[in-house]
Amino acid sequence: MNNMHAAQLVDPYGRKFPYLRLSLTDVCNFSCNYCLPNGYQCNEQKIFLSITEISNIAHAFAELGTTKIRLTGGEPTLRKDFVECLNVIHQTDGIEQIALTTNGYKLTENVDQWVKSGLTHLNISVDTLDARLFKNLTGHNRLSKILGGIDRALSLPLKKVKLNAVLLKNVNSQQFDNYTEMLRDRPMSIRFIELMQTGDNYNYFQKYHINAQVLKNYLFVNGWSEKSREGSSGPAIEYIHPEYLGSYGVIAPYDKDFCDNCNRLRVSSVGEFHLCLFGDQGFSIRDLAQSKSQKEALKDRLKQLLTHKRKQHFLHENDTGVRANLSTIGG
Ligand code: SAM
Predict the structure, then answer these.
(1) Which helix (H) or strand (E) holds 122?
(2) Which listed residue, of 203, 243, 291, 322, carries a Cα 20 to 30 Å from 3's Cα?
């Protein structure tokens, strides 16, 4: 059924979108300096998507050719019904990959259950391998516990485990050797993403942003080579090395042509459809996610909205759109 519909989410530039990033909540228990330095602030009462709405949205996207859904946030695993969220997506025909981006806070205790409930791909954010810096950066003294959770995850039948790190000048830009050591015997990927400027982090960005070229240079000098790109690999460039089981990924959103490989769409935790991480305000689709009988109307609206997708973001021109930080939409 999915192949039949595979071409339906196509934008005016011919890009296809097999990948949906679905935010489950804005709430986060970490206070990462570049994202929520003062922690999550509950300024207005938001009602996050219900299980029924999540299921209806997943079905509509799946029938339009989406095969991968990533759960993100905020911190998605803080939802009390997180396992139920996994279950309903797992029960959606056509969704072959269920991915999660998490800060790892609940990883050790829960990852077995998540995998049993259908999780196939796991990304854990670890922006530094120095325990003291980790505490300063996130507000939690929890690095070794999270690293233990990653090893637990690697022992389970997940298709991919990735460690995400935001590249930060003089924080982790001096820790590449430590990260590399993790890859020697672990079949995982470490993905560095260049720090992005958002509405809220101007000063932080000025101080800590560093171009991903420093990492590319490090990899080149140390014998890592660029892997040829697979069809739907998205914007990351992958690097491999014959002496290491794991791989590196580099995401450089300020690079020219970064958006050419865009393969993802986003739905926020309150049911707004976003065409770009840095686009303008989202378009509400929640009214059409209330019952299964609205599925065709929801699919029509998604296709119609996709005609507005822009060719690229304008981050390189310092246009961050309306995004105050990424906790509202999930990075
Ligand atoms: N709470 C989860 C976590 O910590 O991974 C998921 C939400 S978090 C917003 C998703 C990803 O966005 C994380 O890997 C985070 O480091 C990244 N992120 C947040 N703000 C960013 C920024 N300004 N630039 C680059 N990446 C950012």
Answers:
(1) strand 121-125
(2) 291
Average pLDDT of the chain, as a whole number: 91
Q: What is the rounded CA–CA span in Å between residue 262 and residue 248?
A: 19
**Mean pLDDT, residues 182-207:** 95
User: Which residues sit with their C-beta closer than 6 Å to ligand 1?
Assistant: 28, 34-35, 72-73, 75, 101-103, 125, 164, 166, 193, 195-196, 198, 201, 326-327, 330-331
- pLDDT exceeds cutoff 90 at 65: yes
Least confident of 163-167, 236-240, 294-298, 321-325: 321-325
Structure tokens at 29: 């228990």
Q: How far apart, in whole angstroms, are the C-alpha atoms of residue 193 and residue 198?
A: 14
Closest CA to ligand 1's atom 22 = 196
Helices (H), 38-122: 51-63, 82-90, 107-116
Q: pTM higher than 0.85, yes or no? A: yes
Q: What angle do CA 111, 152, 82 make, to 5 degrees?
A: 10
Q: How many whole angstroms from 330 Cα to the centroid of ligand 1? A: 6
What's the CA gap between 28 and 327, in Å, rounded? 8
CA distances, 60 to each of 23, 52, 192, 227, 327 (Å)? 16, 12, 32, 34, 25
Instruction: Report the chain's terminal Cα–Cα distance, integer Å.
Output: 30
Q: Which amino acid is at 250?
A: V
Q: Is 69 left (phi over 0), alpha (psi -120 to 50) or beta?
A: beta
Kindly give the distance from the C-alpha atom of residue 331 to the centroid of ligand 1, in angstroms, as a whole number.
Answer: 5
Which of 251, 106, 97, 107 has the alpha carbon at shortest distance from 165? 251
